[in-house]
Design a protein that fits this description.
With 254 residues, this protein is an alpha+beta fold. 17% of the residues lie in helices and 39% in strands. It has helices at residues 30-48, 52-56, 129-132, 183-193, 196-199; strands at residues 4-7, 10-16, 60-71, 80-91, 94-103, 108-120, 162-169, 206-211, 220-229, 234-242, 245-253. The radius of gyration is 18 Å and the shape is globular. The chain starts with a strand and ends with a strand.
Length: 254
């Protein structure tokens, strides 16, 4: 079997989980899953004819707006895995793409769904989804849902006390290939705001995140958190604010 292949418009990639993507309990880190998801999304889009280079010819680019992923069973260091992705067409302004990470026996470990926008790279303004729909014909869509409902809006709960945790100055390690903060870094910052006795001992069950605004090197992002214990979960909401505007807002469920 090839390391990467396409079947029924689903793009597959075999992975052996390296140590640098895992935590002290050998479990896949949430931000590491985001890294894997971003890379396979780019690979799949390129194979289907609507990847980075294809959109750049039109002075446009993909931007992820929302992401929801669930850890059904934590993938472990050195485990041999199969990562799968497929696009599901449009929903309003968004283009939807799902992800599924499985073990060698085909058991689902992580499921995810993401919502993407297209922007004009010169003006940084949104391009209407119907103007770009011809790039993603029906013949390229995959069947099925890793998660049925697209990720909804995530906001800081106003009925809970929230506290300022710290300020992060964006530097070299945060910046991606287009000169903005890589989306996975927001998940890194969020996890670092969570009490270590929680994040280091309790496995993450679900992460929902909205990417609200781009940031660049030198920007100061103030990080806030709110904690919401429930009967069956411990929920942390983390928001990053730059110059008074929300950069991202994420919900981590343990």
């Amino acid at each position: 079997m090839e390391t990467r292949y396409i079947k029924d418009n689903h793009f597959f990639q075999q992975i052996k989980l390296p140590c640098y993507q895992t935590d002290s309990h050998f479990r896949l880190k949430p931000a590491a899953f985001m890294d894997l998801a971003q890379e396979i999304a780019y690979l799949a889009a390129n194979e289907m004819g609507f990847g980075y280079e294809d959109l750049m010819k039109l002075q446009t680019a993909w931007v992820i707006s929302r992401l929801d992923f669930k850890f059904l069973k934590p993938p472990l260091w050195r485990e041999e895995l199969l990562l799968e992705t497929w696009h599901k067409g449009q929903s309003g302004l968004f283009f939807l793409r799902d992800f599924l990470l499985q073990d060698r026996q085909g058991n689902p470990l992580v499921s995810g769904t993401s919502s993407w926008l297209i922007i004009n790279t010169s003006t940084r303004r949104l391009v209407r989804s119907d103007e770009m729909a011809h790039l993603l014909p029906l013949s390229t869509r995959g069947d099925g849902d890793a998660i049925v409902e697209p990720c909804g809006k995530v906001t800081m709960p106003q009925d809970l006390p929230h506290e300022e945790v710290k300020t992060h100055k964006i530097g070299y390690s945060d910046i991606d290939i287009v000169g903005h903060t890589n989306n996975a870094r927001y998940i890194v910052w969020g996890m670092d705001c969570i009490d270590y006795e929680v994040s280091s001992r309790r496995p993450v069950r679900e992460v929902k995140i909205n990417f609200n605004r781009e940031t660049r090197a030198g920007d100061d992002v103030v990080l806030y958190k709110a904690v919401h214990p429930t009967a069956d979960a411990l929920i942390y909401t983390i928001e990053g604010v730059c110059e008074g505007k929300s950069v991202f807002c994420a919900e981590f469920r343990f």
